[in-house]
Amino acid sequence: MNTTKIGWIGLGNMGIPMATQLIEAGYEVTAYNRSKAKEGTLKEIGALLAETPKNLLVQTDVVFVMVSDDAAIEAIFNGTNGILSAMVSGKTIINMSTVSPSISRQMAAACTAKGHHYLDAPVSGSVKQAETGQLVIMVGGDELAFNKVKPILEKLGKLAMRVGDTGAGNNAKLAINSLLALYAQGLAETVVFANAQGIKTEDLLSLINNAAIGNIFTKIKGDAIIADQYQAAFALKHIVKDLNLAKAEGISSPLAKTALQTFESASVRYGEEDIIAVIKEVKVD
Fold first, then answer.
1. Looking at the chain, which runs of residues are DSSP E strands?
2. Residue 258 parent element (H or E)
């Protein structure tokens, strides 16, 4: 059993398998989730439960936060019985959510004032990579704090890299997710065009995945297109949030603008489906 006590806040599609990785690595994990129904999954495999984020921080040494957006972060940190209401110091709080660099800078300053360390550490990868500990983790924040928790991060991902000071991890994630949007729309448009020329989707994807342009994304999402199955591993509505965050940070390229327009339109009907459901929007157009 590892002696560092872990807290985990946020048990969505990614949070549950990531917290599970830490339990299986021998860490004592205490979990909190706003929706209590999701806590049972971790409790069954040995997790402890906390009634509030405040209580969780008191009981643990390193706290991971994996929630959906800036508003959720604000509630977790500053809400009633939030993390920052705990009368303790010396904790390390790792925000793995895909949120704005500005909210990270705000929370980092608030954590420092309370005597805590804050790292922004969003991840690249989806549910499958979370389940197998193969995520890529990009970190912003103090180097000493990062080095101290790096062995824990390496239980969650195949690469944990500090890319700069507070907010740098968030900016790296926004850059990567902007590319993700371009990949998804590009793959969708390519399949639609090929189909219009009488080329079967299966044949096209076989060619792509055996060529230099093939990658894990085109394989996984190509399989989803072939099966016509769009259950969300990464919900389309989330890429709209991320593209808008990137826009707020200054991305203004022609491709980024087009992707935002496409995904905002697609989210009206397909927001709860997987990102590659954008192919249905492209077909309509």
1. 2-9, 27-32, 48-49, 62-65, 92-95, 117-120, 123-124, 135-140, 157-164
2. helix 254-270
In tens, the pLDDT along 214-269 reads: 999 999 999 999 999 999 989 999 999 999 999 999 999 999 999 999 999 999 99
Name the residue among 265, 191, 267 with its Cα closest to residue 235: 267
Q: Record the tokens describing residue 226, joined without a space.
A: 């072939």
The closest of 113, 114, 111, 79 to 95, measured between CA atoms, is 111
Question: Measuring CA to CA, which residue among 127, 84, 239, 89 is closest to residue 174?
Answer: 239
Which of the following is catalytic: 91, 114, 173, 221? 173
Distances (CA, A) of 30 to 23, 44, 47, 53: 10, 12, 6, 10
Q: Is 173 a catalytic residue?
A: yes
Q: What is the pTM for the complete model shown?
A: 0.94
Is-contact 118 104, C-beta < 8 A? yes
Nearest Cα to 82, choosing from 127, 105, 50? 50
Tens digits of per-residue pLDDT, 36-79?
888 988 999 999 999 999 999 999 999 999 999 999 999 999 99
- C-alpha to C-alpha distance for 5 and 48, rounded to whole angstroms: 11
User: Under a CB-based contact definition with an 8 Å cutoff, are residues 8 and 66 in contact?
Assistant: yes
Share of the chain above pLDDT 70, in %: 99
Summarize pLDDT for 16-40 with one digit per residue, the tens: 999 999 999 999 999 999 988 889 8
